[in-house]
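Forum > Structural Biology > Help requests

Title: Can anyone predict the 3D structure of LysR family transcriptional regulator?

Hi all, first post here. I have the sequence for LysR family transcriptional regulator but no way to get a structure on my laptop. I'd be grateful if someone could post the structure tokens.
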Amino acid sequence: MDWDDLRIFLAVARAESLSGAGRRLGMDASTIGRRIARLESSVGAALFAKTPQGYALTAEGARLVAPAEAAEQGANAAAEAVGREAGLTGQLRIGAPDGCANYLLPQVARGLCAAHPGLEIQIVALPRVVNLTKREADMAVAVSPPDTGRLTVQRLTDYRLHLAAHDDYLRDAPPIRDLADLRHHRMIGYIPDMIFDRELDYLSETGVQSAAITSNSVSVQMQAIRAGAGVGIVHDFAIPFAPGVRRVLPGRVALTRSFWLIRHADDRASRRLSLLGDLLAHGLRAEVARLESQVAGPSLRRP
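Reply #1:
Sure, ran it for you. Structure tokens for LysR family transcriptional regulator below:
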């Protein structure tokens, strides 16, 4: 059985669609469909059933997943052995919440690519937890450790968040001397029913019950704050990217959260992915420290 056909089979199984598999593999959906049809003909069984939700594995397809994944691990090991002397090469897809993806990973990726010119880094910014079981990414940064799945978890670094607003907003708005004063201000935060992790429920720690401007994206929230639309909680590491935005009540509202590096348990034997994970962890720690050092004032830990 051809490994390239198995590679396409796994991509469809994980994406549950031809178009999703095509995006991951850099192939058009019609080609993916022809290759799946060819594989089904060679094994003499239908591997997928087309449903309104996409392509679902049949019983025969489900039985093929484990052997296909074993072939994938063997192919990856062979690629590592061949490329070991040439340094780190190939594609690395990193999933991350959009705050990390927008404000940290571009600089970390720049450093990794500069040190390893044969490396191709893809950054997937998602307002939800990245599904490594479906291989949406090779590794993921998360804001809390998962409690299910065959995954390995590594604590990366703590990061800090504070209330913040733009000078233009603060100049014309009522003064903010205490948390009670926030009731006189336009608040910015997450859409409540789209908070995918309890660690992102920042405003509840200020006593604020609702916000006037909300988004499922922390980057959109920061842009609203930068536009002078109101007050919200932002990452300290994002403030250097927003001239005119400064912290508000830093001695009263100071949150600490953590980033975690998540990998599929089957990848522990991969020397390449382990090394890339170590380099990613080091880069993220250094970048958080560098950016947070540019934000003046005390940094208090969450009680």
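The chain is about 40% helix and 25% strand. Residues 82-86, 298-303 have pLDDT under 50 and may be disordered.
Shout if anything looks off.
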